[in-house]
Q: What sequence folds into this?
């Protein structure tokens, strides 16, 4: 009996998977999919006294999520927005979104109900802390925002939470436990994260009920994916929602379960100030890149283009008299090659500077890809075509460039970090990615 129940809930589990993400990915086929699966089956079952408190809570939560899914589907079917003019000053519209209706409704449902519980165990600096500046700075800002008791997303108790955060800082673990850095072995990192997870899995019932599928851990650090590298980590974290900047799909990043978070270099400019951005007619530089020879892709880029061409300005180190952000503001296409790892902070910098990002990468899952259609406001060049960069960029007609440029301006708000967070900003976008993955699973009521 128990086995059947588990089997059934597994079926629901896998059947539910892909549904919401699929709706997001497929603008046109969405309606066809609607009758496929009766998502309400479990949630609508009558509450009877034989359910105790835990079961009751799970059912309530699943019911809420079921209603949110239904509202999203209705919005897709209706192909219209339900706008409450007093409270909404932004409505996502246009082709930069894979499906503006589902995104609008989904973001709204998230604001309405989504609650995150953060475990209290652990102490700073390894937990409840994180860098606030430099390329991993998004870690600290995300943690601060989630842990803020005043946040509308903060659960008052774990029983009302839809997802649970493991408040570990991979960046701080690496910084403090690997000092001095004499080994690149991930043993210590694995030990701390697995120990922490075992503690909360023993102490509370939440982890075990989905084997971690409604739990997440967020980190921009290059090493973060390695928590699930060895066998023990693979086992413990196989369901965990990993929120990573290093979203390398050939290294186990799973776009249906994991979340790609943008890397932002929080040093080059103030959080709220805008980068000087020129009108497109005033952008005299075709392409620009400046950065160290980190990793194979950049090596190839520098080899082909460094100091070779006036229109393709590729520098290893920018001359002191030149200002990085000023140049971005005067450039049409900003080259954003992967470095030692797939993510590049230049993507967000380019977007903020109104410069069309040219993502030079292989196997990189771009942030918010289930909501944003990157092909509408960026270009992608695989590493094997680096030598053709000039030909590719020269062949973009001016009218197409202007479209790309205008759409870059449209998505800017999704890459802005506001402390405290505002709807549709980068924090909300990351949280929305987590929300979508949570919508894709259903806790078994066993
Ligand atoms: C609810 O059920 C769980 C296991 O299914 C049990 O451990 C717990 O003690 C029960 N709680 C109450 C309040 O009956
Ligand atoms: C969409 O909704 C608006 C009000 O929000 C309404 O005026 C309009 O007629 C609707 N369009 C369609 C096609 O249903
Ligand atoms: C969760 O599962 C583990 C391994 O099966 C077990 O050791 C632990 O006691 C369980 N936790 C709870 C709270 O029941
Ligand atoms: C172009 O740049 C020049 C010099 O920086 C400035 O005076 C002019 O207003 C700019 N034109 C537009 C259309 O932004
Ligand atoms: C992505 O992962 C693959 C497989 O491990 C690796 O070969 C590649 O170098 C990684 N990409 C980057 C940019 O690090």
A:
């Amino acid at each position: 009996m128990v086995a059947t129940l588990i089997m059934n809930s597994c079926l629901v589990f896998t059947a539910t998977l892909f549904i919401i993400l699929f709706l997001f990915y497929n603008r046109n086929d969405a309606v066809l999919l609607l009758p496929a699966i009766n998502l309400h089956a479990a949630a609508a079952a009558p509450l009877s006294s034989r359910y105790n408190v835990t079961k009751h809570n799970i059912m309530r939560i699943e019911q809420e999520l079921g209603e949110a899914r239904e509202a999203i589907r209705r919005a897709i079917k209706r192909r219209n927005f339900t706008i409450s003019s007093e409270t909404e000053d932004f409505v996502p519209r246009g082709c930069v979104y894979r499906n503006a209706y589902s995104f609008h409704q989904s973001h709204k449902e998230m604001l309405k109900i989504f609650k995150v519980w953060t475990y209290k165990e652990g102490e700073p600096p390894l937990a409840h802390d994180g860098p606030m500046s430099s390329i991993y700075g998004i870690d600290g800002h995300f943690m601060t925002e989630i842990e803020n008791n005043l946040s509308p997303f903060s659960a008052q108790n774990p029983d009302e939470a839809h997802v649970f955060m493991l408040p570990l800082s991979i960046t701080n673990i690496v910084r403090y436990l690997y000092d001095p850095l004499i080994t690149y072995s991930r043993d210590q990192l694995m030990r701390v994260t697995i120990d922490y997870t075992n503690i909360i899995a023993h102490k509370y019932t939440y982890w075990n009920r989905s084997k971690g599928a409604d739990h997440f851990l967020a980190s921009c650090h290059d090493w973060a994916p390695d928590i699930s590298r060895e066998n023990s980590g693979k086992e413990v974290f196989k369901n965990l929602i990993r929120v990573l900047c290093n979203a390398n799909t050939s290294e186990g990043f799973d776009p249906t379960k994991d979340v790609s978070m943008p890397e932002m270099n929080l040093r080059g400019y103030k959080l709220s100030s805008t980068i000087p951005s020129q009108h497109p007619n005033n952008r005299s530089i075709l392409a620009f890149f400046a950065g160290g020879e980190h990793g194979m892709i950049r090596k190839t880029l520098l080899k082909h283009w460094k100091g070779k061409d006036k229109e393709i300005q590729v520098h290893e180190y920018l001359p002191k008299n030149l200002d990085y952000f000023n140049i971005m503001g005067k450039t049409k296409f900003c080259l954003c090659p992967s470095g030692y790892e797939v993510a590049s902070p230049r993507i967000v910098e380019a977007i903020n500077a109104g410069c069309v990002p040219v993502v030079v990468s292989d196997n990189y899952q771009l942030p918010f890809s289930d909501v944003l259609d990157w092909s509408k406001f960026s270009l992608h060049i695989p590493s094997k075509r680096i030598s053709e960069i000039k030909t590719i960029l020269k062949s973009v007609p001016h009218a197409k460039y202007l479209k790309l440029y205008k759409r870059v301006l449209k998505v800017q708000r999704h890459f802005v970090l506001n402390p405290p967070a505002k709807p549709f900003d980068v924090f909300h976008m990351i949280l929305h990615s987590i929300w979508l993955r949570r919508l894709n699973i259903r806790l078994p009521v066993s």
